[in-house]
Amino acid sequence: MFARTREDIAAVRTRDPAARGAFEIWLTYSGMHAVWGYRFSHWLWTARARFLARAVSQYVRFLTGVEIHPAAELGRRVIIDHGSGVVIGETAIVGDDVLIYHGVTLGGTSSEGGKRHPTLGSNVVVGAGAAILGDITLGSGSVVGAGAVVVADAPEDSLLVGVPAVARPKNGTQAPPDSFNYTDPAIYI
C-alpha cells in the first residue's frame, strides 16, 4: 500500500508542474485522495462487502467531488488533476498512467446490465469537461480534447476533439515528441 502511494505521488510530481513536494501532494491533492478512497472501496467491493463499498465511495465523493464506482477498474498511476466533478461508472476500465482533468465523465448510454462504460488504454489524457460515453474503447496514447464528447472507438495514438469527437491520428502533427502528458489538443484544431 505504501509503495503504491509513493508511486502515485511520484507520478503527480512528474506530470504536474504545479506540484512542489510529496507532502503537499499527499495532503492537498483531492484527485489523489479520490483514487486512494477508490482503492479501499474497490477492495471492499471485491470482498463482497458491496453496501459498505458504496458507502465509502459516496463518502469519498462528498469529500473530494469525485465519484468512482467501486466496481470500476483503475490502473496504476492514474491521476485526476483538480479532482472535482469527475464521474467514473461501474463498468469503466482505466489503464495505467492515465491523466484525467476535472469535469470528466466516463459514463454509460444504456440502462441495460453488462459492460456499458468506456475502456481507456494506458497513457490516455482526457481534457477537462470531456464525456466518454458507452461501451467504447480508446486506444493507448490517445488524447481527448477539453469538452469533447466521445461516442465511438478510437485506435491507439488518436486525438479526439469536437462534439461528437472525431478521431485523428497524432502522428504527422507538430506535437512535441515528449508531449504525451501535456499535449494541448488545441494545437490540432
Automatic annotation (TrEMBL):
Catalytic activity: L-serine + acetyl-CoA = O-acetyl-L-serine + CoA
Pathway: Amino-acid biosynthesis; L-cysteine biosynthesis; L-cysteine from L-serine: step 1/2
Keyword Hydrolase listed: no
Classification via Pfam families: Hexapep
Protein localization: Cytoplasm
Example of a GO biological process term: cysteine biosynthetic process from serine
Main location: cytoplasm
Keyword Electron transport in record: no
One GO CC term on file: cytoplasm
Protein EC: 2.3.1.30
Top-rank lineage group of the source organism: Bacteria
InterPro entries xref list: Hexapep, LbH_SAT, Ser_AcTrfase_N_sf, Ser_O-AcTrfase, Serine_acetyltransferase, Trimer_LpxA-like_sf
Group of enzyme by EC: transferase
Keywords, comma-separated and alphabetical: Acyltransferase, Amino-acid biosynthesis, Cysteine biosynthesis, Cytoplasm, Repeat, Transferase
A single MF term (Gene Ontology): serine O-acetyltransferase activity
Similarity section: Belongs to the transferase hexapeptide repeat family.
Name recorded for this polypeptide: Serine acetyltransferase
Organism this protein belongs to: Rhodoglobus vestalii
